[in-house]
Write a sequence for this structure.
C-alpha cells in the first residue's frame, strides 16, 4: 500500500458515513506561513471519491465538482455520502468532507464508465468503411483535438520542492510524494523571471511505484503549481471551485499535465488542465476558479501580455 | 418584465425555500420526440441562481456547478437553498430544484464580486509605470488570452428553430426566446453537411430587449446547439454536469458565445464555452460533460478528424 493510498483511505462506519484523516505527508503551507497548513486539495478529493465509489454501481467518477469551503485540519474527518440518482448509464452522489461538524469540502460526483484503452470504433471514416451497410451511430463517435505541445521528458526539469508545496516546519509534504518534471518554458518563476504567461506543464507521477487510476487523476488535475506563478504571483492561491472529468482509464507510464488560464482579473483566475497518458489519450480534464494569492508580483520585466 | 424574467422567477415561501415553475415558453423536445419535453437547462440554472442570490451577501455567482439529475416537468417546483459558508470574499450555497420530492437539478454556487467594466489596473507594465515606488501586488493583476475568432455579425446567420430547440407540438419554445446569429463555419450540420469539428459559435441575445446579467449569462453558456452537432450527431445530447464561472458584469450589446470540445468518446463529450461581451471582455466561461445523443450520424463525407 502506497503512502497515497494510506493518505486517501476511508473506513466505512455506517450507511453513507466514512471515517477519513487528512494526512500530514500531503500537507502544504503558504509561502511565508501566511495561512494555516493545508492538505493538498486533490488528495482530499481523492479521499471523498473513495467513499463515493465504495457504494457506486458504476466504476468511474466521470464528473466531479468540488467546492473548497474551509482549510482541512490534520485531524479526523468524516465523509458523508448521499445518492441523488441511480441510473443505468450514470449515477450521482452528493458528498461532504466534514470536520468538527463543519463542511470542509462539498462535492458532487457523477459516476459512470469511461473507456479503458484505445477505442475500437476509431472514427466516422474507418467505422463506415468496415461495414458500409451499417450506418454509423453517434455512440461510435470518437474525436480528439490535438494534445498540448510537450518537450521530451529528458528535456524537462525537476524543481524539487516549490513554494506552496512544503509542509509545516519545512518538511517536504506534498512535493515529497509526487514528482513533476517541468517543461522548462514554464519554470521562470522559480528564478523570479516568470514567463508572463499563466501556464504550467509537466510530467507527473507519484514518487512511489503505483498504477495511475481515478484517484491519482484527481491528484494530477491540480498537481502542478498554480498557473498564476507564470505571471509572477507566487503567493498562496486558494482554489474555490474545481470540476474535473475522467475521460479514460490511464495506461501505464508518466502522465502529462498541461494547465493554463484564459483570464486573470478582479482577484480571480481560472485554470484549465488536461491530463494525457503515455499512450497519448486525453484521460482527464479540469477547470478551476481560484483567488490570486496576496503578495508582491515578481517580474516579469517585460510585463507579460496585458489583458 | 421579460418572458425570461417571468420564466426564471422565484417566490420566497420560507427560510431557504422558494417556489418556481419551469416555463413551457423555454421548453425543448428531443428531435423525433425520443425523450420527454424538457426545459432548457440554462433557464433552470438561472432560476436556482435567483433563489441563491436572494439571500447572498455577495452580488455575483462567480462559480456555479450544476448536475442534471432528471428531466424537469412543466409543473410546480421548489428550490431549496442551504448556505455552507459565509465568507468576506466569497460565500457558498448548496441548492436543489425539487419536483414531487425528487431532486431534478443539484447546484453548488459560490457568490462573490466580479469587475463591472474595464479594470483600472490594466497590467503589470502600466501599473508599475504609474507609481514605480509602489510594488505591484497580485490583486492588481489583469491578464486575458486572445478571444476566439469571430466573423463580423453581418456575416452571421440566423438558423431559426433548430432540432432540439422546439417545444412540444412544434411550438418554437427556447428558440423563439433567443436569437443566435451563427458563425457560418459552424452551421453545416443544418444541411446534413457537418464541418467535422465539434464547435459552435454565435452572437447570442434574447429576442426581447433586456440587459445582460448573471442570469442571462447562465443561459448563454449553454445557449447554442451541442457541439456534437458539428460531428453530425444531431440527436438529443443531455448535459450531465455543467460548471460555469462569471468573470465580469457584461456591458450592453450582443454576447459572443464560442463553444468547442476537446474529446468525444465512450459515449461522452465535453463542451467548453466562453462568453465575450461587446466591449471585448471575457465575462463567462463554462465546461460541461454530456452524453452523445443516440441516433444516426449524418456525414461528414470526409470523416472529420479521427481521434
Amino acid at each position: 500500500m502506497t503512502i497515497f493510498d494510506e493518505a486517501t483511505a476511508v473506513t466505512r462506519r455506517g450507511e453513507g458515513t466514512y471515517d477519513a484523516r487528512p494526512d500530514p505527508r500531503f500537507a502544504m503551507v503558504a509561502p511565508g506561513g501566511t495561512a494555516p497548513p493545508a492538505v493538498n486539495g486533490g488528495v482530499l478529493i481523492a479521499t471523498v471519491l473513495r467513499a463515493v465509489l465504495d457504494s457506486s454501481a458504476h466504476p468511474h467518477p466521470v464528473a466531479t465538482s468540488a467546492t473548497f469551503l474551509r482549510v482541512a485540519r490534520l485531524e479526523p474527518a468524516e465523509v458523508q455520502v448521499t445518492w441523488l440518482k441511480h441510473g443505468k448509464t450514470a449515477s450521482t452522489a452528493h458528498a461532504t468532507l466534514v470536520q468538527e461538524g463543519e463542511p470542509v469540502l462539498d462535492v458532487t460526483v457523477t459516476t459512470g464508465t469511461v473507456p479503458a484503452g484505445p477505442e475500437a470504433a476509431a472514427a466516422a471514416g474507418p467505422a463506415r468503411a468496415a461495414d458500409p451497410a451499417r450506418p454509423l451511430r453517434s455512440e461510435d463517435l470518437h474525436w480528439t483535438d490535438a494534445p498540448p505541445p510537450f518537450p521530451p521528458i529528458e528535456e524537462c526539469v525537476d524543481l524539487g520542492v516549490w513554494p506552496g508545496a512544503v509542509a509545516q516546519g519545512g518538511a517536504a509534504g506534498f512535493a515529497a510524494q509526487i514528482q513533476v518534471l517541468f517543461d522548462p518554458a514554464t519554470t521562470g518563476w522559480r528564478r523570479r523571471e516568470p514567463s508572463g504567461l499563466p501556464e504550467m506543464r509537466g510530467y507527473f507521477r507519484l514518487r512511489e511505484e503505483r498504477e495511475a487510476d481515478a484517484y491519482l487523476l484527481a491528484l494530477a488535475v491540480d498537481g502542478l503549481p498554480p498557473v498564476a506563478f507564470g505571471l509572477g504571483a507566487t503567493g498562496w492561491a486558494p482554489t474555490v471551485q474545481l470540476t474535473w472529468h475522467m475521460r479514460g482509464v490511464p495506461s501505464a507510464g508518466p502522465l502529462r499535465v498541461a494547465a493554463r488560464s484564459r483570464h486573470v482579473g478582479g482577484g480571480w483566475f481560472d485554470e484549465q488542465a488536461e491530463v494525457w497518458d503515455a499512450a497519448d489519450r486525453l484521460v482527464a480534464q479540469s477547470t478551476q476558479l481560484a483567488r490570486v494569492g496576496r503578495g508582491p508580483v515578481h517580474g516579469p520585466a517585460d510585463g507579460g501580455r496585458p489583458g
Summary: Chain B is about 10% helix and 35% strand.
